[in-house]
Amino acid sequence: MRTKRQASTATVSQRRIYRTGDERAQEILDAALELFAEHGFATTVQAIADRVGVTQPLIHRYFPTKATLFGAIRDQLLQGHWNAQWRRMLTDRSRPLPDRLSEFYEAYLPIIYRRVWYRGFLHVAVHDDAFAQIYLKKVERDLLGTMLQETRHHLGLLERSDVAFHERELELAWGMHSTFVYIGMRKFIYNLPSPDDLASVIRDQTVGYLLAAERIMTELVRRQPGFKRTQTGNADGAVK
Nearest to residue 140, comparing CAs of 184, 201, 190, 181? Predict the structure, then answer.
């Protein structure tokens, strides 16, 4: 007659499917992310092993300590979804800026609109002050800064690297971006409905951003010495 432990081991063995080292490590990390999103740092290695259908020693073969595993979760939430193609998409001046902005958010939002990402992000951010700061600085530098530079070009403003973005420009870009982020908060944190027609919401928000940007940047042209109009029109064919 088998003991309870032997029966448990047999069950694990029956569920185990062969994976390469990289595949197994990713499988473990995916399961850890799912559990972490629900339980945060109270997540146990045993719970992860049970979810994957392996033993704790096998988990430790890939992640020697619980701290190592949590570090991998942190890195995955921070940059596992990041795509360098987003910046190239935003800077493709062969296409109108409104189209580029919409295309970017149509690519970006489905990647972050996941329960695992939102809840996991909040668990780490509460525990690690630097985590959110690192991520948001990356968003501002690589995404919002690119959008603002392209918006200046779209409006026919002189592009100069030595003219830093004004606080009003940055807050405008953050306002648009935060609207999209909050849609995910409503759905995955507060369990409230989200828009059925996300594509229309994206178009509405990006159009609103560009209209406000024209007013704000035109005002800054008059007030700030570093802002000047170019003599040519913008990249989209409209003369400003």
Answer: 181
> Residues 6 or more apart from 171 whose CB is under 8 A from it?
none
Q: How many CB atoms lie within 10 A of CB 225?
A: 7
Let me know whether 129 and 185 are in one domain.
yes
Domain of 170 in residue numbering reads as: 81-223
pLDDT at 127 over 80: yes
Nearest to 209 by CA among 144, 138, 157: 144
Number of domains in the chain: 2
Task: State pTM to two decimals.
Answer: 0.82
Domain match, 100 and 177 both: yes
Mean pLDDT for all residues in the chain:
87
Cα–Cα–Cα angle for 216, 104, 231, nearest 5°?
40
**CATH for 14:** 1.10.10.60
Q: Give the number of other Cβ atoms within 10 Å of residue 123's Cβ.
A: 23
Question: Coil, helix or strand for 229?
Answer: strand
Could you give the CA distance from residue 207 to residue 213 in angstroms, rounded to a whole number?
Answer: 10
Q: How far apart are CA 40 and CA 44, in angstroms?
A: 10
Residue 206 and residue 101 in contact, taking contact as beta carbons nearer than 8 Å: yes
**What's the CA gap between 202 and 7, in Å, rounded?**
53
Q: What's the rounded Cα separation, in Å, for the pair 122 and 185? A: 10
Cβ neighbour number for residue 185 with a 10 Å cutoff: 14
Q: Which two tokens stand for residue 201?
A: 């919401």
Two tokens, residue 95:
């296409």
Residues 40 and 120 in one domain: no
Least confident of 22-26, 116-120, 156-160, 197-201: 156-160
